[in-house]
Amino acid sequence: MADQTGAQQLFDLWKKQVEEGTRAWLKMAGQGQSPDPQAFWRPFMDQGMQAWSKVMTQGQPSPDLMAQWKQFLDQWIAAWSKVLEQAMGTENFAQAMGKQLEGFLNQAGPAKKAAEQHIEATLAGLGVPSRSQVVGIAKHIIALEEKIDAVDDRIDTMLKRLEELTAAVRKDRA
After folding, report:
1. Cα–Cα distance measured from residue 39 to residue 21, given in angstroms and rounded to the nearest whole number
2. Which of 40, 61, 127, 141 could form a disulfide with 65 if both were Cys (CB 3.0 to 4.6 A apart)?
3. What are the CB-based long-range contacts (under 8 Å, 24+) for 47-54?
């Protein structure tokens, strides 16, 4: 029974910390402040780890303790899912994600261009055509095929017209 009481105290302690952290996080997200993840998570993790290490140093964990730990984790995941769902639905969160994505794209664009230039130079040095060169050749081939099809259609039209004229001349001679 002592293990169950200790486990329940641990569970209650973590549950309280999750609720307090949730309120603090929502408060920061609602005010448009940029939350500091370390300041947010550190008290939660430190207190929980201290309590957990205290329980673990008291001896071998009982099956009941492990079952309660699993129950706690399940509830913890459900609570955080709900909190994060609410927070992610705010305008402030959308703006923060937009700024982060914009920053990423601003960084990634020049890096991608530099990588492409490096690859082009390497392939040219090896005498291997680059992707852009192969694509360019493919575009030229497609354009030539379209022109050939157009010429073929014109030849067919001219042959048909020539056959009509030939038939008309034969008809007049007869």
Report:
1. 10
2. 61
3. 47/13, 47/17, 48/13, 48/14, 48/17, 51/9, 51/10, 51/13, 51/14, 52/10
Q: How far apart are CA 86 and CA 80, in angstroms?
A: 10
pLDDT tens by residue, 137-166: 999 999 999 999 999 999 999 999 999 999
Query: For the residues of 140-159, what is the DSSP string, one character each?
Result: HHHHHHHHHHHHHHHHHHHH
pTM above 0.70, yes or no: no
Find the helix or strand (DSSP H, E) in which 35 lies: none
With CA atoms as reference, report the closest residue to 68 among 1, 8, 5: 8
Report DSSP letters for 104-133, one per residue. Answer: HHHHHHHHHHHHHHHHHHHHHHHT---HHH
